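User: Fold this; tokens only.

Assistant: Input:
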Amino acid sequence: MASVKREETEKVSDLRVVFAGNELQRSRALELQFPPMYSPTLVPAIPEDERVNSSGLDALIVVIRRLVSHISGEYSDPSIPEIAQQEQANPLLRLAMSHFDNESQTNLGVAGYHALKAFYGGEKLKAHKLTFMALSEHQLMLKTFWSRERFLLYQPTFLFRMGDQYEWDFYDYSGEPEELARLAARSLVRFKTGNLSEAVERRFNPGMLRWMASNMPSVLRVHYTVDKSEPKTMHDLQAITVDMRHMTKGSQGYELAEKGSCLTHYGLIAEVRLSRDGKEKDTVRTYAHGGEVISMPAEFPPTHKELLGEPGASYLLYYGALASPRVPREYRIKVLKRNEMSEAIDRQFADLVSGSPSGNSAVKSEP
């Protein structure tokens, strides 16, 4: 049985190299290419007792690519030492930057296996959950991805005091990886019903001993559990505006910025419907900047046709900051077959692909 070595991950083509010098093409490739499903049983190089499927891996790759395409810039530059170190520690981040149209399923399968092993220190994969929730909120992701500044809900610098009779003082988490990982974990907003914007804003109310300020993040992470008696649907959650009030220092000490002075608009750019029992698949859907559904080919990767807010479902939602409010829209979901994908890409994104388009790229679907 052939062994899987760490170096195998580096053999996978990197779209940042393929599209070097063209940030627009790189960003569109991140948004519109999708990985083939992780199928370890089809990869002889993976040990037989390690061939465990993971729809969570497939969905997480899609989410990482969509978020990086939304932010782009420094988060897609491997020449930055911090990014290179994070990709070394977490090979999934490097795999997510692959140019899938140029790769064999064997190479991607080997790289996927190695990425999963990194989460669990080389332990047998069968001993662990490989769901989206388990992977996306794992310490490895908190330390290497969610702790990046533009994903943090709170500023690393915050106010604290020993008691209500004391003055506020500053504490700075910057440069402390363990503390930044904890801050990243706290940045996940848990939501069930009510008003999501208000649920986020309540996070910035001052406490008795600690006062966490808004970081005005470029991406919001929300764990949404549908309330059967009052479900919030796509109509309610496709876009939100949050008053990201921060601290100001006045003549009376520290106080919240004036209400309404820090309004930030967000639009849903990715959603994952979470596996309910660890046996069914995690499924994913992504959205373009303007809110259009990015249709996925039927063969890649697991997606869902139901609109957000399915009774009894639980989701991880990802919102991207926008310059202006997103116009509400009605949605329909369309899953394209492979030949339809190729024709659509040929028509609309001919500049993105070279030669014959492959079946794992996508096209935006008008609502």
